[in-house]
Structure formats: structure tokens, C-alpha cells
Specification:
With about 280 residues, the protein is mainly beta. It has 2 helices and 17 strands. It folds into 3 domains: about 110 residues, Immunoglobulin-like (Sandwich), CATH 2.60.40; about 55 residues, no CATH class; about 80 residues. The termini are far apart.
Length: about 280
């Protein structure tokens, strides 16, 4: 007897899939910005920013002048890809998860006025969110700390309450809004001191300019030939124009002289920015 062996093959369709699912860890999301005290001064150290989410304390990092110009804290938050029901680690977050920010100084936790009474949502992996934090009490909810507004009330006649000091107002009538003066660190109750840029003279291809630099603030200069498109321009604090840089971090409060190469001062316009 001849036995025959029959081999049956089950055909399994092959599906080509272009969708890739990531392993639970996803690229970090960075939260960064400037922490200011109740007078608007950027903190220079001895403080920690802490992100707190629904799973508890996420992470914290120091406040320091040396992060980047105009930024004194930066936190890289572990992100979960969301492919499993549980977070891949307890300190990770997922996109749109709520969180609050705290600032720790001397063991005391402060809730910045920007996020008081509510929470924020984390962004997507691999991206960045700027979150500037201001300490203090803001009882009228206008974004200006009460202590800063009280300085104006105590120094000016006719300004009697917090309601009289608004961000868009100009308490000392110098053409600069209260909010702008708060950010710049100038006095909103003294019209003689304001945030402005003066051209002193032009010699040997250098424009000599001057402005009041306030300790802890970061300054950049932008130039334009048509008053429409402004681009960042390097400037020097040396009279010969050497060692030019695109930013200046003020180490003390003083009038700062800067020098900018320029061929024809009449054809260029300048804007000074402060953070």
C-alpha cells in the first residue's frame, strides 16, 4: 500500500502597516520661563520650581541665572506614549494632563499668581511650553502683584486703591504702560525713569546708544530699515565695538552704553526688548 502524505497550508494574509507604536517613553516636554518676585525682579537663585501633577510631585529644578538669556528655569518632563493603561513611570505625564507649578524658597512652597486657583495642561512630547511665574498676592486678578501696585498707591496722589492701577494704565503718564514698567523694572510712579533707548551719537561706523539696564533683566536689540521687519542685531558694551553679542544680562542697575555697527544711522531704526 502506498501511503500519500498530504500537506495542507493555511494561507495567512500579510498586512503591511505604516503605523508605528512607540514604547511607553516618549520625547520629553520642556516647561521653561522666568520666575519673578512680587516686585517683578527675576529670581537669581536659592529657589526651586516644582511641577505637581495628578500622580503627585513630578519633578523640580533650580532657579538660576545661567539657564539661557531671559529664562531662569527649565524642566524636562518625562512623557508617556499612552500605549498602556499605566504610566511607564510614576513621574511621567501624558499630553493634556493637568498640573500646577510651585516655587519653593527656603522650604516654603509658593503658588504663583499665574496659576492660582486652577491648573494648566501639559503639551505634547518633544515640544516646549513657556510658563512665566510671578510670586505674591494678586487680589484683583489683573496680573500685577498687590505689593507692586501698593508702591504706586503710596507714592502718587490720586491713586487710592488697587483698582486705580491697571496693566494697560500709565500711572506716571510717561507713555509706558504699568505692565511694561513692571516687566522692565522701571518706576511706574516716576515719569522721569522709564524704559527707552537713546541714540547718543554716531562715530567711526558705530552708533552709540544708552538705556537704563535693571539688574536681572535680559536685553536684546532689533534693527529695521523699513519699520516693518525687525531682526536681531549684535551690540557691544565696549566703545570700540569689540566682543559684540546678541543679548545682554544686566548684573546691576545702571545706565548701559552700547555700540552697534551702522553705515548710515538715518536708514536704520532700532528697538530695545527686555525680558
Amino acid at each position: 500500500m502506498i501511503r500519500k502524505l498530504t500537506l495542507s497550508v493555511l494561507a495567512i494574509p500579510v498586512v503591511l502597516c505604516t503605523e508605528a507604536r512607540a514604547f511607553p517613553p516618549a520625547p520629553h516636554h520642556e516647561v521653561y520661563g522666568t520666575v519673578r518676585d512680587e516686585s517683578g525682579n527675576p529670581l537669581t537663585g536659592e529657589a526651586t520650581v516644582r511641577i505637581v501633577g495628578s500622580s503627585g510631585t513630578i519633578l523640580g529644578g533650580p532657579v538660576a541665572w545661567t539657564v539661557t538669556p531671559g529664562v531662569n528655569y527649565s524642566l524636562k518632563i518625562p512623557m508617556d506614549a499612552g500605549t498602556q493603561s499605566q504610566l511607564y513611570q510614576s513621574t511621567a505625564m501624558r499630553p493634556a494632563m493637568p498640573f500646577t507649578a510651585e516655587v519653593i524658597i527656603g522650604g516654603v512652597s509658593y503658588l504663583p499668581i499665574e496659576v492660582q486657583g486652577g491648573t494648566l495642561n501639559i503639551g505634547v512630547p518633544g515640544e516646549r511650553t513657556r510658563l512665566d511665574l510671578t510670586l505674591g498676592v494678586d487680589s484683583d486678578g489683573d496680573g500685577l502683584p498687590d505689593a507692586w501696585e501698593q508702591e504706586i498707591i503710596d507714592s502718587m496722589d490720586g491713586v487710592d486703591s488697587l483698582a486705580d492701577v491697571t496693566p494697560e494704565g500709565d500711572s506716571d503718564a510717561d507713555g509706558v504702560s504699568n505692565l511694561s514698567e513692571y516687566i522692565a523694572g522701571t518706576y511706574a510712579f516716576d515719569g522721569r525713569v522709564k524704559f527707552d533707548l537713546a541714540i547718543i551719537d554716531v562715530r567711526e561706523g558705530l552708533a552709540h546708544m544708552r538705556f537704563l539696564a535693571v539688574r536681572g533683566r535680559t536685553y536684546t536689540l532689533r534693527a529695521s530699515t523699513d519699520l516693518e521687519k525687525f531682526t536681531s542685531t549684535a551690540f557691544s558694551v565696549n566703545a570700540d565695538g569689540s566682543d559684540a553679542a546678541s543679548v545682554h544680562l544686566a548684573g546691576q542697575t545702571r545706565y548701559r552704553d552700547v555700540y552697534v555697527p551702522v553705515e548710515d544711522i538715518q536708514s536704520k531704526h532700532f528697538r530695545l526688548h527686555v525680558e
